[in-house]
Automatic annotation (TrEMBL):
Gene Ontology biological process terms, A to Z: antibiotic biosynthetic process
Any GO MF annotation of the entry: hexosyltransferase activity
InterPro entries: EryCIII-like_C, Glycosyltransferase_28, UDP_glucos_trans
Domain Erythromycin biosynthesis protein CIII-like C-terminal: 285-404
UniProt signal peptide: none
Alphabetized UniProt keyword annotations: Transferase
Protein name (database record): Glycosyltransferase family 1 protein
PANTHER family (UniProt xref): STEROL 3-BETA-GLUCOSYLTRANSFERASE, STEROL 3-BETA-GLUCOSYLTRANSFERASE UGT80A2
Organism whose genome encodes this protein: Phototrophicus methaneseepsis
Length: 415
């Protein structure tokens, strides 16, 4: 039986990626020795999913990030540079990454090193520690892609590319490593020579096919069948009433105007809004203002159980988190994606490219295009047909069960 570490940043969203945590559960059910490794905030969530958990003090992930400055008071070019640098610091702050590497090496000294590490796509400390421990590293949730052409990069990207290369080299020098788990060209990223698993299809990456590396395998996924009963608030809604789910995930939930605009847009086409605002604190007066702005009948929640709610939804309006996007796809639900940061813009573009919904910017939302987009999607039966077909294609690839097979094959090949 294989001894596998699953290593993630200390955010629950980083256990998803479309099937990361489920893959660990499949392998454990087959008798393999699985250990989930992260910082303390994930301990209870991982235990609730039936997986052994090992806490380390540092994973190398910068969270929460330092407070954002007022970008309106900064020259535009400087503001763009600051946004890119803050994103880079999240996964490649040298001192934090070094502490994460040391924590993983210390853990291996205490409990023995694994046969392989299956990691969060942006966890630099795990990539370095895997090389130091001489164990196979596998990336879950992100494709392996060829280096970007520096000539097509923006100046700010070129500047930060040089910065990130220098950071990685200093970390490699510190630990006596070659950096075998990082790409070498412009815009360096974590690259496993063995295996990258995505929980989507090859079609999902159709506009990036020329950059896809051979170690990328697509396993798709399917909707979960809930094991618990639906919540009372959901069963109390008449079965014939179509719903729309509106969420910004767990991080960007402070955009209260988005919730009210989206709820109004879906109500105009006869959908009942289910608005999940997350658990971040909201001032009582702001929450009261939000309630006043919502259409009658709206269900305002901190969290919604996707696998109960989405089968009743005609539309989902969200931020483009990979896990959220994946859930909408496997349930065959039309989407409007309004990205707020980072890779969400990529997911939004892919949703539009696959003709599963719309990609709207924050500016589009402020111009009232949520209402126009909602009306257009609900009138386009062919979009729903695309969503249904894409969900079927996803399910046919095998999902986490297939991912588990690929991981075991990679471990055997590297042994």
């Amino acid at each position: 039986m294989a001894n596998l570490w699953f290593v993630s940043a200390p955010l629950y969203s980083h256990t998803d990626w479309g099937g990361f945590l489920k893959t660990a559960q499949v392998l454990q059910s087959q008798g393999h020795n699985i250990t989930w490794i992260s910082e303390a905030p994930l301990a209870n969530a991982i235990a609730a999913n039936g997986l052994p958990f090992q806490e380390i003090k540092h994973t190398g992930w910068l969270w929460p990030p330092p407070p954002a400055p007022d970008l309106s008071q900064i020259p535009p070019q400087e503001a763009v540079m600051l946004r890119y640098r803050r994103a880079l610091d999240t996964w490649l702050s040298e001192d934090l990454v070094a502490k994460g590497v040391e924590a993983l090496i210390d853990l291996a000294d205490r409990i023995g090193k694994p046969d392989a590490m299956v990691i969060d796509p942006f966890l630099s400390a795990a990539a370095l520690a895997a090389e130091k421990l001489n164990v196979t590293m596998i990336v879950a949730g992100w494709p392996a892609q060829a280096n970007l052409d520096e000539n097509v990069m923006f100046p700010v990207q070129r500047d930060l590319s040089s910065d990130s290369q220098q950071r990685i080299q200093r970390l490699c020098d510190r630990f006596g490593l070659e950096g075998v788990n990082f790409s070498k060209g412009a815009a360096p990223s974590i690259i496993s020579p063995a295996l990258h698993i995505t929980y989507f299809t090859q079609q999902w990456y159709m506009n990036e096919a020329s950059n896809m590396l051979f170690q990328t395998k697509h396993v798709g996924g399917s909707a979960n069948l809930p094991e618990d009963p639906p919540p009372d608030w959901l069963t109390n809604i008449p079965a014939e009433q179509p719903l729309a789910l509106i969420t910004l995930g767990t991080i960007f939930s402070g955009d209260l105007g988005f919730f009210s605009w989206a709820a109004q847009a879906v109500a105009r086409v006869g959908l009942l809004p289910i608005v999940a605002i997350g658990w971040n604190p909201i001032a009582p007066e702001d929450k009261a203002q939000l309630k006043r702005a919502l259409p009658g009948g709206t269900r305002l929640l901190n969290w919604a159980p996707f696998d109960h709610v989405l089968p009743r939804c005609e539309l989902m309006i969200h931020h483009g988190g990979m896990g959220t996007t994946h859930r909408a796809i496997v349930h065959g639900v039309r989407q409007i994606v309004v990205p707020h940061a980072a890779d969400q813009r990529i997911q939004a573009r892919r949703v539009a490219d696959a003709k599963l919904g719309l990609n709207l910017s924050a500016h589009d939302v402020r111009q009232g295009m949520l209402s126009e987009g909602t009306k257009a999607l609900m009138e386009a039966d062919w979009v729903q047909e695309n969503c249904t077909r894409f969900a079927q294609q996803m399910a046919a690839l095998g999902g986490p069960a297939r991912a588990a097979e690929l991981i075991l094959q990679a471990v055997q090949l590297e042994a």
